[in-house]
Design goal:
Keywords: Ubiquinone
Protein name: Ubiquinone biosynthesis protein
Mean pLDDT: 83
Pfam families: ABC1 (PF03109)
Low-confidence stretches: none
Radius of gyration: 22 Å
Distance between the termini: 45 Å
Number of helices: 17
Number of strands: 9
Helix content: 55-70%
Structural class: alpha+beta
Strand order of the largest sheet: 1-2-3-5
Shape: globular
Number of domains: 3
Length: 427
């Protein structure tokens, strides 16, 4: 049952989405009709970014993810969406103070002064301020008022759309609702700053052994509901990587890839928000990872299966990959041609094995994989969506800055480690 307040919030949010979307469509049509060929694309991209910023909530998060995929959306749109990573319009000092006082009670005067000045970053969920206290420089992350209501309403709209899509004959067995619910759970979890502080500490500890990777430690005694204080990392500039020597840039990308592979195959603890507002490359060769709000914990069984699937890809063993996918299927129609499915999965894996990042088209691979599942009405574990999302975000950075990396082979030691951990746990 949906209470009246929630229903009103959903109705208001739906009206706002429709109104903003309609107004943006009118403006885009005018831009398309009146702009020169040289400026049309830039102006349309900027209008789309403004629309996502105005809508906020899950729409900003969607724009952030798309902004990392220059290979999919093109340089112009990726650049326009790039400002959504840490340059969303900040909240007012009064709003920030209200959240601080509710979460901390007696608010440190240094924090009061910090929110009275400009924020150092602003996203869809929170703004970040720089504060100095007791000889330490801190980053203070403050949740936006109303962020939860906006995301909840967005997810209700998406659930309605997923329910409608699931009734179409072609998608009747696709677990749309589960996927949307899992995405919604991840987005709503970003509102729990206590959990995020714990996630940040875990991320720091898990990646401590990866050379060149830095994760700021939270400061629990200065954190509370809606407020996280953490170490402030100086010198963060997302444009730095473009000017670094190729050998430094490639070493940093390798460190980032190793960090993600450790999370994915060994820890089963995924950072799903590795856009350029949360991933920084410093001139000294270190990589800084921020923000542990959007994470996903894979079940041990899902991690074991995904690790095994990736191991099969590395070896070019499509039969193993097909077996793993089939092991996650909940129901199979008697008339389904399992042998044909196995053969097509095997062929897909063989076509993509051993490619460097420049040539390995992970989005196309994922689409082909999902198309085959739809063709044979065999749908795999919805949890597989999240490691795929993690890898898609990562691959966009790798293709741009280290295109000759063997994206699959770099995973081999982490996959082997992950398989050994699994066998040890079940042995």
């Amino acid at each position: 049952m949906v209470d009246r307040a929630s229903a009103r919030s959903l109705a208001a949010r739906t009206v706002r989405i429709g109104a903003c979307g309609g107004a943006a469509a009118v403006r885009m049509a005018a831009i398309a009709a009146t702009s020169s060929e040289g400026t049309r694309g830039t102006r349309l991209a900027a209008e789309l970014a403004r629309l996502m910023e105005r809508l906020g909530g899950a729409f900003v998060k969607t724009g952030q993810i798309l902004g990392t995929r220059v290979d999919l959306v093109g340089e112009t749109l990726a650049t326009a969406l790039g400002r959504l990573h840490d340059d969303v319009e900040p909240m007012t000092p009064e709003e920030a103070l209200r959240t601080m006082r509710a979460g901390l009670g007696l608010t440190p005067p240094e924090f009061v002064r910090a929110v009275g000045g400009p924020s150092v970053a602003g996203g869809s969920i929170a703004c970040v301020y720089r504060a100095e206290r007791g000889g330490r420089v801190l980053a203070v992350k403050v949740r936006r008022p109303g962020a939860g209501a906006a995301i909840a309403a967005d997810m209700a709209v998406l659930r309605a759309a997923a329910g409608a899509a699931a009734r179409l004959p072609a998608f009747r067995r696709v677990p749309f609702m589960e996927i949307v619910d899992q995405v919604g759970d991840c987005l709503m979890a970003q509102l729990d700053f206590g959990a995020e502080a714990a996630n940040l500490r875990r991320l720091h500890d898990d990646l401590a052994g990866i050379p060149g990777v830095v994760v700021p430690r939270p400061v629990p005694e200065l954190s509370g509901d809606g407020v996280i204080a953490m170490e402030f990392i100086e010198g963060l500039d997302r444009g730095v990587i473009e000017d670094l020597p190729a050998r430094v840039r490639e070493a940093q990308i390798t460190s980032l890839v190793h960090a993600v592979y450790r999370m994915l195959f060994i820890e089963g603890f995924l950072h799903l928000d590795l856009h350029q507002g949360n991933t920084y490359f410093k001139p000294d060769g270190t990589v800084v990872l921020l923000d542990a709000g959007l994470v996903f914990r894979m079940s041990p069984r899902a991690r074991e299966r995904f690790t095994g699937f990736f191991a099969g890809m590395i070896r070019g063993d499509g039969e193993v990959c097909a077996d793993i996918l089939l092991s996650t299927v909940r129901r199979t129609d008697p008339e389904t041609d399992i042998a044909a499915f196995r053969a097509e999965i095997s062929d897909l894996v063989l076509r993509n094995v051993g490619m460097v990042a420049r040539d390995f088209d992970l989005p196309a691979f994922c689409l082909d994989l999902f198309d085959l599942q739809r063709k044979y009405r065999l749908y795999a574990e919805p949890e597989f969506i999240f490691p795929m999302l993690c890898l898609l975000t990562l691959q966009g950075v790798v293709k741009r800055h280290h295109p000759m990396m063997d994206f699959q082979l770099e995973a081999a030691p982490f996959v082997m480690h992950g398989l050994l951990v699994t066998s040890g746990a079940t042995g």
